[in-house]
Write a structure and sequence with these properties.
Blueprint lengths: L6 E6 L3 H11 L4 E7 L5 H7 L3 E3 L12 E4 L6 H10 L4 E3 L7 H14 L3 E3 L7 H12 L5 E9 L4 H5 L11 H17 L2 E9 L10 E8 L4 E7 L8 H5 L13 E5 L2 E5 L3 E5 L11 E5 L7 H14 L9 H20 L3 E2 L9
Parallel strand pairs: 1-2, 1-4, 2-3, 4-5, 5-6, 7-10
Antiparallel strand pairs: 7-11, 8-9, 8-15, 9-10, 11-12, 12-13, 13-14
Length: 357
């Protein structure tokens, strides 16, 4: 597909994130929006606005009508929809989580690998330049080895968010699978594989079937320990989106939501303020620190994700930024949190398999 003037992409599922994908594709210089596929006939007007076709089901769209697809359906439909795209030989960008179960996620990965068709998972935060800058900072050894991380994702979602669908108070709709899974993917990207997790969750504030708040202890294979607080029921300035302003639905605060302590210094993320010993020799608690800011340029990560997806479809790269296996690993870690919360015991991530998300 290297000669494609534009990569024709269909968006399957035009909910909150699906519509954002559709608008990104429609406005991208390397892509065109071929179709929106969604059973809601009201999405016809969105398709018309963006110059695309609308289809109620995948069965209605001709195989040759597009080159690739973005799957933004409910989690339980990811496997079915992904396989239907694969049968048409369409490369896929599948929204996180990769599937509703680890088994279904693994089935997707294996099917796409056998067919040698590109599969990309929608953990869009990886496309921010400060992510690679953070990996370089740690890799340089300049501030030593990471020892601990303190991570907060805490917002208050409005009532209108929950009124858009009852599922948002059911098993798929809590902040663990909707929001924290992005933090998990970033933690794995920056700190490496997760070994063990212990967690407590509550639904006291919203009273839904799913959690609204969680406190989590994460042990990484490197030995690093992280504490994670997550809630969608507290009004605070501490969230990834607030820190970097990437989401138009979340007010920007500019306040970093991660703090990482290393053996020779510390840093905030995503703002990348770095603290180091101010003098000569080895620093300790009796000696002053200096702070400096690592500069990073802003991007629109969903736009950069579409650019990368187009490169995958065209064969300009064969390495997805977030592979299907990365998607399964992030889902497995979230399921370890859920399992630990139910059992009251630490859970080895490698031992988690098969349960429904």
């Amino acid at each position: 597909m290297t000669g494609l003037p534009h990569v024709r992409i269909s968006v399957i599922g035009a909910g909150l994130i699906g519509e954002r994908h559709a608008r990104m594709v429609a406005g991208h210089p390397d892509c065109s929006l071929a179709a929106i596929i969604d059973p809601d006939p009201e999405k016809r007007s969105l398709a018309r606005e963006l110059g695309a076709q609308w289809y109620g089901t995948m069965a209605e769209i001709p195989d040759a009508a597009c080159d690739a697809a973005i799957v933004a359906t409910p989690n339980a439909l990811h496997l079915e929809t992904g396989i239907a795209c694969l049968e048409r030989k369409w490369p896929c960008l599948i929204e996180k989580p990769i599937a509703d179960t680890i088994a279904n996620g693994q089935a997707l990965v294996e099917a796409f690998e056998r067919a040698q068709i590109p599969l990309l998972i929608g953990h869009h935060r990886r496309y921010h330049p400060f992510v690679e800058q953070t990996r370089s900072l740690i890799g340089s050894g300049d501030i030593g080895q990471p020892v601990f991380a303190s991570i907060i994702w805490a917002v208050r979602k409005p009532h209108s968010y929950f009124e858009q669908g009852a599922w948002r108070l059911d098993s798929d709709g809590g902040p663990l699978l909707i929001n924290l899974i992005h933090e998990i993917d970033l933690m794995r990207c920056i700190f490496g594989p997760v070994d063990e997790i212990q967690a407590i969750v509550t639904n006291l504030q919203r009273g839904g079937q799913v959690e609204d708040t969680a406190a989590i202890l994460v042990h990484f294979e490197s030995g690093l320990l992280a504490t994670v607080a997550v809630t969608d029921a507290a009004l605070t300035p501490w969230s990834f989106e607030g820190a970097c302003g990437e989401n138009p639905n979340i007010a920007e605060t500019g306040i970093s939501s991660w703090r990482i302590g290393c053996t020779f210094g510390a840093f905030e993320f995503p703002g990348l303020r770095v603290w180091r010993h101010a003098g000569d020799g080895e620093g300790d608690w009796s000696k002053p620190l200096t702070a400096s800011d690592v500069q990073s340029h802003r991007v629109t990560p969903l736009f950069e994700q579409v650019s990368h997806f187009a490169s995958l479809v065209r064969g300009k790269t064969d390495k997805p930024m977030v592979s299907g296996r990365d998607g399964v690993a992030a889902l497995q870690a979230v399921m370890a949190i859920q399992q630990s919360a139910r059992s009251g015991r630490p859970v080895k991530v490698a031992d988690v398999n098969g349960q429904t998300a």
